Amino acid sequence: MGADERVFQRWQLAGEAHILNWLPPQPAAEPLAHYAARLAAAVPVAQACWLVGVSFGGLLALEMAQLRPLARVVLISSLAGPHELPWPLRVARALGLDRLVPPALLQQLPWAARWAFGVKTQGEYALLRQIIADTDPAFAQWAIGQLLRWRGVPGPGPTARLHSARDRLLPPTTGIDCLVAEAGHFLVVSHAAQISQVLNQLAKNSD
Hints:
Distance between the termini: 33 Å
Shape: globular
Oligomer: single chain
Strand content: 5-15%
Strand order of the largest sheet: 1-2-3-4
Largest sheet: 4 strands, parallel
Number of domains: 1
């Protein structure tokens, strides 16, 4: 919900990689598909590529792939469709809690985020706290609302999915290609080496 390029700093990818930075929603209630189209402007239409989306970024990757037919999607700690939304978030959607509870509250409760993300080491906790402190609350509230009310996309879905077995925020469902047993939602950081290995193998197999 606003994590930036710092979550990718441990990745070791063999090929060329580009990070797409978040854009401010315009207007404040911008629909996800419209936002994805603006984000996709950085990806040439005729460019074959992998769109790797982490958590909320996975939704954007799937939406962008609708506009970039040569792109293949990899989801990390994310959802393939709205049917995978866990029941606590469905309750939050029904009650409109994303509109009632300010996201800035999370910045005041970093220990709660540590539990939710399954962070174990002090180094990972320090990184998580820094990211949360730097996250724009308005963007986070928009992203949470988009996640809760996402309608999904048509098509075959992602090429590959990586998930953690102990993800407390978005528990794994079926169709996971790489399930990491001892990780949480911070899989992108805690198991960066394993993720890098999988991504490099996917790219190699597609050559």
